[in-house]
């Protein structure tokens, strides 16, 4: 039992030392919850151990304790720190200002480097670019060969022959439209006295429409 108490006391002393060092380093007021939140992840402190250690440190006079309503605030004993005069405070303020500007400049540089890195990551690597260039060269070579084959062909159509083909096409398309219109007029006239539907009539006489054959009338 005595050994267990001794071990518990030693552990309390260890955690008290960790918390004391933390408060002296930060030199700002904290609640027990603040200290627990800040040190728990790094040291695995329990909430009860933190409260107990801080109360012990305050009782021993190693840290100061202030009570605000229902909350206790703890901070380092300021007597251990040397007095700071106005000149020192101004120097510190100047140093803080310079460091803040440096941080801002470094932050801006980091953002710029991040943007450049993203751009580089989205770009092709040297190997990928070489491979793509080779593929494009091969494709261009194929197009050149095809072009030369077309140029060397002996069966080119003359402008006159081409014009004749287009005129004949226009003539046939016009005739197609004319006959389709006549057929439609005749069908509609018959349907006026036909007792069945248009579809049934066309099936009965064996007529297939352009739509049945999925044929689209071209434009002239």
Automatic annotation (TrEMBL):
Q: Can the keyword Nucleus be found in this entry's annotation?
A: yes
Q: What is its main location?
A: nucleus
Set out the biological process GO terms recorded for this chain's protein.
Answer: homologous chromosome pairing at meiosis; meiotic joint molecule formation; meiotic strand invasion involved in reciprocal meiotic recombination
Domain Leucine zipper with capping helix residues, every copy:
157-213
Quote the subcellular location field of this record: Nucleus
- Record's Gene Ontology CC terms? condensed nuclear chromosome; DNA recombinase auxiliary factor complex
Q: Which domain of life is it from?
A: Eukaryota
Q: Which residues form a coiled coil?
A: 89-153
Q: Which residues form the Homologous-pairing protein 2 winged helix domain?
A: 17-76
Keyword match Glycosyltransferase? no
**Which molecular-function annotations from GO does this UniProt entry contain?**
double-stranded DNA binding; recombinase activator activity
Q: Which UniProt keywords apply?
A: Coiled coil, DNA recombination, Meiosis, Nucleus
Q: Which InterPro entries match?
A: Hop2_WH_dom, LZ3wCH, WH-like_DNA-bd_sf
Instruction: Give the UniProt family note.
Output: Belongs to the HOP2 family.
Q: What is this protein called?
A: Homologous-pairing protein 2 homolog
């Amino acid at each position: 039992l005595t050994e267990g108490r001794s071990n518990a006391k030693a552990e309390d002393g260890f955690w008290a030392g960790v918390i004391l060092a933390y408060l002296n380093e930060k030199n700002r007021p904290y609640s027990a919850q603040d200290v627990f939140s800040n040190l728990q992840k790094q040291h695995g402190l329990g909430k009860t151990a933190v409260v107990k250690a801080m109360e012990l440190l305050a009782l021993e006079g190693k840290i100061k304790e202030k009570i605000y309503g229902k909350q206790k605030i703890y901070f380092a004993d300021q007597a251990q720190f040397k007095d700071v005069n106005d000149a020192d405070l101004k120097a510190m303020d100047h140093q803080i200002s310079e460091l803040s500007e440096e941080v801002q400049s470094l932050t801006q540089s980091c953002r710029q480097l991040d943007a450049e890195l993203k751009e580089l990551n989205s770009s092709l690597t040297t190997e990928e670019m070489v491979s793509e260039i080779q593929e494009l060269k091969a494709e261009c070579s194929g197009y050149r060969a095809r072009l030369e084959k077309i140029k060397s062909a002996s069966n080119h159509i003359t402008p006159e022959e081409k014009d004749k083909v287009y005129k004949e096409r226009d003539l046939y398309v016009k005739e197609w439209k004319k006959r389709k219109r006549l057929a439609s007029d005749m069908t509609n006239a018959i349907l006026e006295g036909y007792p069945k539907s248009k579809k049934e009539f066309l099936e009965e006489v064996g007529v297939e429409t352009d739509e049945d054959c999925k044929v689209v009338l071209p434009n002239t």
